[in-house]
Task: inverse folding
């Protein structure tokens, strides 16, 4: 299993030459599931079931769905004669002819320009039959999009694991340097005290206590342990077949919190440089995690 990317594209078709439904889906990263649906004007009722279908397959991302139809499924229109109005018009023309003694007969051309005599009537499509085709095209597009998101997810997963390994190595380097740094701190403190208290008797026990206090303040074993635990959790989440982007982002915040605490406890140039490198790796991982579903 692997994490899924939020970047993807899919296309699906259903129908034939006489009527063809085409669905296209484009997805990019987004904090939540944000859908934009574009439909032919004759099928506004399809929007809600489309949103439901998308939500069943995708958890996060900005999703743009374009659904189009060509052929006989378009709204059909036919001309309709208003027979009652035509009879009234004809009667009026006959009355005018009699009243004014007009010669000749009433012709078709005399009536064609009369208002509302002929109107256009729309014939709605069979929505049930059309939804069967539209949903098939949409389902195929969703499947293709999911496959692309999976492939993109594999690439993201590979890159994140490499950067996570680099981060783990930095944590290990700090861990191996801690005993030496504490010993160096102890020696530096004793040397400074010797200079400051030259000729003054200093209780060895008191010196040992002060060194112990200093060592305790510089102890980052808890931070190292938590970082290693977070790294294990991160690897675990990457292998889950579900949306894990938010959890990974939260873990990265914890990574940064522990690194900041660690750096503040050990005031040493070498450790500070390693802390900067760790933060750099965290930021690189975060950039990739932003596109994980």
Result:
């Amino acid at each position: 299993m692997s994490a899924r990317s939020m970047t993807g594209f899919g296309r699906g078709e259903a129908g034939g030459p006489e009527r063809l439904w085409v669905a296209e889906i484009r997805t990019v990263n987004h904090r939540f599931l944000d859908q934009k649906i574009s439909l032919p004007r004759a099928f506004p009722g399809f929007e809600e079931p489309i949103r439901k279908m998308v939500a069943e397959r995708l958890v996060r991302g900005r999703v743009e769905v374009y659904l189009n139809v060509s052929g006989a499924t378009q709204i059909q229109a036919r001309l309709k004669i208003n027979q009652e109005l035509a009879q009234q018009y004809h009667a009026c023309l006959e009355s005018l002819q009699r009243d004014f003694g007009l010669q000749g007969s009433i012709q078709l051309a005399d009536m064609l320009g009369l208002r509302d005599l002929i109107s256009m009537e729309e014939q709605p499509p069979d929505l049930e039959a059309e939804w069967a085709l539209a949903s098939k095209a949409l389902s195929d597009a969703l499947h293709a999009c999911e496959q692309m998101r999976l492939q993109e997810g594999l690439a993201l997963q590979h890159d994140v694991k490499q950067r996570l390994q680099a981060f783990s190595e930095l944590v290990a380097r700090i861990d191996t340097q801690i005993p030496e740094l504490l010993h160096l701190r102890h020696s530096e403190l004793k040397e400074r005290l010797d200079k400051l208290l030259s000729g003054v008797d200093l209780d060895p026990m008191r010196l040992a206590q002060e060194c112990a206090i200093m060592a305790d303040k510089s102890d980052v074993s808890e931070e190292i342990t938590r970082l290693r635990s977070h790294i294990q959790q991160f690897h675990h989440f990457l292998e889950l077949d579900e949306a894990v982007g938010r959890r990974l982002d939260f873990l990265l915040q914890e990574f940064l919190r522990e690194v900041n605490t660690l750096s503040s406890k050990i005031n040493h140039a070498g450790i500070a440089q390693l802390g900067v490198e760790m933060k750099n790796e965290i930021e690189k991982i975060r950039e990739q995690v932003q596109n994980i579903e």
